[in-house]
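Entry 12.
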Amino acid sequence: MVDYLEPGQILRQRYKITGLIGVGGMGAVYLAEDNRLPGRQCAVKETRFHLNATEAVAAAARRQFQQEAAILARLDHPGLPKVSDYFSEADRDYLVMDFVPGRNLQEILAECNRNGQPLDEAVVLGWLNQLCDALTYLHSQQPPVLHRDIKPANIKLTPDNRIKLVDFGLVKPLDPNDPTTLTGLQGAGSLPYAPLEQYVDYLGHTDPRSDLYALGATAYHLLTGHTPASAQERFLRPESLPDPRALNPRLSSGVAQAVLAAMAPHPKDRPASVAAWQKMLFASAPDLLSAGPSSSSSGPVWLRENWLLAALALGLLIASLWVTFFSG
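Predicted 3D structure (tokens):
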């Protein structure tokens, strides 16, 4: 039985656990208060992936955790939660980062499915634009940093309509010259979104195009409302992945083609980078490239496309108020 931290427990004489945010196969994420900075909430990710490992493997896993945590702590991008601390206690490793409020995109997808209302293409493209910027930042680090578990559940929409790529559980620095990277301990991502090469990562085949596959699979899910077939299933049955427009006929053909390009089974058949794919994705909608966080909300899009109706409605409202209060 897994023993989770209880509310009220304090880690490192600083982080007071207030609740459980989520659990996974290798640990849990907790909501905590920072006793040194009153009023600050943070997310504390606990990893226990080496509980039953040999002493040598556990020591190597801890060294890898410390290496990766140090890299994450140097990252600074609005699309990523800021990592502020990391430490180990007994047989557990802890990563402390900003708590990101809001719902994840998996929850938003579920709500849309219940209501029978698919996500608007322009809204999704606004989200993807922000995700592309965050991933391009990660991949531009030296060495490049791969996320390795991009999926709707690991993407949050904040109350101010900004996208945050969360859950660094599988992040790793990409160093093909380092044979000590224990990718088998980290896991291989989530089945519907992970590319084939991520499951044989010990051969050194992953690169930024692996994150691109997961981003494409996430885009497929957001734009169609259907979970994509896994890379393994597609290998056995290529027809198991329908064209996105077969599931959402209103989808732009250029966007559908870009999504499928990102999900090419072999890395060499995908765009060379997330930045290159971003250009492909928005080739038929260049105005959305500069839309920024506001594109995450359907309100500003509606106003841009229906400004005349909005102006007319405002004029009628002003006229009615004038007649009510100032006539006679």
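Annotation: Residues 103-296 form a domain with the Transferase(Phosphotransferase); domain 1 fold (CATH 1.10.510.10). Confidence is low (pLDDT under 50) at residues 170-187, 291-310.
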